[in-house]
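Figure 3 (text version): structure tokens given as input.
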């Protein structure tokens, strides 16, 4: 911004808006893309100083795939990072997706698919009802503090029932949190109607929302062995509720993070998982509900609504009423 010659106050304001245009994690991946560019120049001997030409972009793509062994999805992210690098430096970005570049990227994607099928590698495995019950038993038999055991199980059932992206409900760091983005105690409310209890989770900035308005996701009581409402109530009975603190915290007051939950899942479920096939992680809850609904014969729009997925096929999010979502939850737990 400083190179544009604009007044200082306007430069600072524009920089602030520009920084907010991309998430923190995305900025991090973009910086990695630039670091990779320097390594590519060192390995290949090709000058990679921006602005890049189309030919240099192709060299970069080939180096990422052949030398670094990266998958097509990661390469595409890095290309987006290089485009952003040009914009930030006030340069006109080159055409990254030329016909030849698209053909090469498609070939890399096909090679990734062939390798995955040959190795039978599933990556993150979906959490099924049986996997959930196993996880519950493993938590009960673990050496964790009793309150933390209740927390881990409540977290697992809520993530599964709501098909949440894990950092929609868990803090990203143990030492700091941003109240404008982190789920706080005040964002969890409970209501009771016709003998059934519902947990309301208020997401302040859901990924799929194009508006600034928050979205409330309802988690319904189902009285099954993996009932999220009952698990939440058992944990909340002993946990210290703080409206202005992260909603889910360990016994010592430290926020439960996605990384910590992944560590717990790896520790407990790892010995029962064939790593050659795949592994369980926090995203397994989200893909698990999609897999189960698909197997149960639910229509695409039902699955999308339950998990709040977006698709190129649909111009906007198709939202079902809460009664329909409650029926979906009951059917899942009757499988």
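Below: residues designed for each position.
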């Amino acid at each position: 911004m400083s190179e544009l010659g604009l007044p200082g106050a306007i430069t600072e304001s524009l920089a602030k808006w520009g920084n907010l245009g991309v998430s923190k994690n995305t900025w991090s991946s973009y910086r990695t893309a630039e670091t990779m560019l320097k390594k590519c120049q060192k390995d290949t001997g090709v000058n990679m100083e921006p602005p890049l030409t189309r030919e240099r972009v192709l060299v970069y793509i080939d180096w990422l795939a052949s030398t670094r062994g990266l998958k097509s999805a990661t390469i595409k992210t890095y290309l987006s990072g290089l485009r952003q690098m040009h914009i930030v430096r006030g340069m006109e970005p080159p055409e990254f997706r030329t016909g030849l570049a698209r053909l090469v990227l498609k070939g890399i994607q096909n090679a990734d698919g062939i390798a995955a099928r040959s190795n039978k590698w599933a990556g993150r495995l979906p959490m099924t009802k049986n996997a959930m019950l196993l996880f519950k038993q493993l938590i009960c038999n673990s050496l964790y503090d009793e309150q933390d055991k209740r927390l881990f199980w409540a977290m697992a059932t809520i993530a599964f029932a709501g098909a949440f992206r894990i950092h929609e409900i868990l803090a990203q760091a143990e030492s700091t949190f941003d109240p404008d983005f982190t789920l706080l105690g005040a964002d969890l409310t409970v209501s009771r109607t016709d003998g059934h209890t519902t947990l309301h989770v208020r997401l302040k900035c859901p990924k799929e929302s194009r508006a600034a308005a928050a979205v409330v996701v309802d988690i319904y009581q189902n009285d099954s062995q993996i009932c999220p409402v009952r698990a939440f109530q058992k944990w909340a009975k002993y946990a210290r509720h703080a409206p202005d603190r992260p909603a889910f915290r360990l016994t010592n007051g430290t926020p439960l993070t996605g990384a910590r939950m992944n560590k717990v899942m790896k520790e407990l479920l790892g010995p029962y998982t064939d790593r050659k096939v795949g592994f369980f992680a926090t995203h397994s809850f989200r893909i698990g509900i999609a897999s189960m609904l698909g197997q149960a014969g639910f229509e695409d729009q039902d699955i999308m609504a339950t998990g709040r997925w977006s698709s190129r096929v649909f111009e906007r999010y198709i939202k079902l009423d809460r009664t329909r979502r409650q029926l979906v939850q009951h059917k899942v737990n009757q499988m």
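Residues 24-44 form the longest helix (21 residues).
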